[in-house]
Amino acid sequence: MSNRKSREIRLKSRPNGMVKPENFELAEVTLPAPGDGQVLVRNAYMTVDPYMRGRMMDRQSYVPPFQIGEALTGGAVGQVVEAGPGAQFKVGDHVQSFGGWREAFVANGPELMMQKIDPIPGVGIQSYLGSLGMPGMTAYAGLLRVGEFKPEDSVFVSAASGAVGAVVCQIAKAKGSKRVVGSAGSDEKCAWLKEIGCDEAINYKTCGDLNAAVAKAFPDGIGVYFDNVGGAHLEAALGNMRQFGRLAECGMIEQYNATDMPPGPRNMILIVGLSLTVRGFIVSNHYDMLPDFMRDMATWIAAGKMKWKETIYDGIERAPEAFIGLFRGENFGKMLVRVGPDKAV
Amino acid sequence: MSNRKSREIRLKSRPNGMVKPENFELAEVTLPAPGDGQVLVRNAYMTVDPYMRGRMMDRQSYVPPFQIGEALTGGAVGQVVEAGPGAQFKVGDHVQSFGGWREAFVANGPELMMQKIDPIPGVGIQSYLGSLGMPGMTAYAGLLRVGEFKPEDSVFVSAASGAVGAVVCQIAKAKGSKRVVGSAGSDEKCAWLKEIGCDEAINYKTCGDLNAAVAKAFPDGIGVYFDNVGGAHLEAALGNMRQFGRLAECGMIEQYNATDMPPGPRNMILIVGLSLTVRGFIVSNHYDMLPDFMRDMATWIAAGKMKWKETIYDGIERAPEAFIGLFRGENFGKMLVRVGPDKAV
Question: Which residue of A176, B52, B83, B157 pairs with B87 in a disulfide if CB–CB is 3.0 to 4.6 A?
Answer without folding.
Answer: B83
